């Protein structure tokens, strides 16, 4: 067995996606059985579909094995269920800003924002501008399930300042919605300044 | 080890949720280590949060292990990535109808509907009434990853008739959005009558 490390970290992609696709095709074309091991789920913002397409374009059959997505698992690590009876019946996972004007605005619909730390302040402001309550709870969960996991909570109006205060850094999963109140981190947090 | 079967199937819940919560508390209170084994992810419409709350209300510590949710895995089984570069950047998972008026309408935002087979025709009509293109692709995936898995495709305007035609039955996962075109089932399907 040979291991080809193409690992990405935030802002650091040593092997471009196109080259990853090529490696998969090259190795399979040599007759090797190739396992493309990814973190999370390959189809949740994981570019698994592109890798599959690259292989299939060369007649290489692909089997996709679903994984545990950080969009659900990292909130869970912080004690936040993305759905919860009487609190939230559905959830949306997004990365960018383009979709914000169209997202459900109720606290009973959970938003999970991936790769959103750098733009947190702007995102929070946009969500409020497009109808979500400024008092809607938010959690930013860093390093989910790791020993140094950290959950920072606030509201749409306070979270950017709080995150800056404690030095939140990517990668982190951001959860917006009433379900955040179910996290032990919410209970133990300092009450947001000038609120409750 | 003792196994207490509380398994649910569509429309058949032999043990009510409240009783499940009680069993967890009773068994743990007797000093047993209790594993509550669930299909999918316990926090994606799995009532895991309620079970955790029931235990914690009795001082019983709980560890939640995330799982592979059918909301992502069953589309994947049909070759549908819920996100795909240039096709869809985000996705929403819902069950009920209440949220339909608020959902993003673009084909580039994937909708995953769980427990939605019985209401498929009504849901499709509502999505169109609230702004989604009647030509938006839809897939209904039954028995994902089982040997008898079946994918039925159509558009918001045709899917209800097609599903009825082939006798689609719960449980199934419904995917709405342009990503459906990436499924092999889409390519091999009969062109929808009077379209393309």
Automatic annotation (TrEMBL), chains A, B:
<dbReference type="InterPro" id="IPR035996">
    <property type="entry name" value="4pyrrol_Methylase_sf"/>
</dbReference>
<dbReference type="GO" id="GO:0019354">
    <property type="term" value="P:siroheme biosynthetic process"/>
</dbReference>
<keyword id="KW-0808">Transferase</keyword>
<keyword id="KW-0949">S-adenosyl-L-methionine</keyword>
<keyword id="KW-0456">Lyase</keyword>
<dbReference type="InterPro" id="IPR014776">
    <property type="entry name" value="4pyrrole_Mease_sub2"/>
</dbReference>
<dbReference type="GO" id="GO:0016491">
    <property type="term" value="F:oxidoreductase activity"/>
</dbReference>
<dbReference type="InterPro" id="IPR014777">
    <property type="entry name" value="4pyrrole_Mease_sub1"/>
</dbReference>
<dbReference type="GO" id="GO:0016829">
    <property type="term" value="F:lyase activity"/>
</dbReference>
<dbReference type="GO" id="GO:0004851">
    <property type="term" value="F:uroporphyrin-III C-methyltransferase activity"/>
</dbReference>
<dbReference type="Pfam" id="PF00590">
    <property type="entry name" value="TP_methylase"/>
</dbReference>
<dbReference type="InterPro" id="IPR006366">
    <property type="entry name" value="CobA/CysG_C"/>
</dbReference>
<keyword id="KW-0489">Methyltransferase</keyword>
<feature type="domain" description="Tetrapyrrole methylase">
    <location>
        <begin position="5"/>
        <end position="159"/>
    </location>
</feature>
<dbReference type="InterPro" id="IPR000878">
    <property type="entry name" value="4pyrrol_Mease"/>
</dbReference>
<protein>
    <recommendedName>
        <fullName>uroporphyrinogen-III C-methyltransferase</fullName>
        <ecNumber>2.1.1.107</ecNumber>
    </recommendedName>
</protein>
<keyword id="KW-0627">Porphyrin biosynthesis</keyword>
<dbReference type="GO" id="GO:0032259">
    <property type="term" value="P:methylation"/>
</dbReference>
<dbReference type="InterPro" id="IPR050161">
    <property type="entry name" value="Siro_Cobalamin_biosynth"/>
</dbReference>
<keyword id="KW-0560">Oxidoreductase</keyword>
């Amino acid at each position: 067995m040979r291991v080809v490390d193409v690992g990405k970290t935030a802002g650091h992609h040593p092997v471009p996606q196109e080259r990853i696709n090529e490696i998969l095709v090259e190795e399979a074309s040599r007759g090797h059985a190739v396992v493309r091991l990814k973190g999370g789920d390959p189809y949740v913002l994981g570019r698994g579909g592109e890798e599959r397409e690259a292989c299939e374009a060369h007649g290489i059959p692909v089997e996709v094995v679903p994984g545990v997505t950080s969009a659900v698992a990292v909130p869970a690590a912080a004690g936040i269920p993305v759905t919860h009876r009487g609190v939230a019946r559905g959830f949306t996972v997004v990365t960018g800003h383009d979709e914000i004007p169209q997202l459900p605005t109720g606290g009973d619909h959970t938003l999970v924002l991936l790769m959103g730390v750098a733009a947190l302040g702007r995102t929070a402001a946009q969500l409020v501008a497009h109808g979500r309550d400024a008092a809607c709870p938010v959690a930013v969960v860093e390093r989910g399930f790791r020993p140094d996991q950290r959950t920072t909570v606030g509201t749409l109006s306070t979270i950017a300042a709080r995150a800056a205060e404690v030095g939140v850094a990517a990668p982190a999963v951001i959860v917006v919605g009433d379900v955040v109140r179910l996290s032990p981190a919410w209970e133990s947090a300092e009450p947001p300044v000038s609120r409750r």
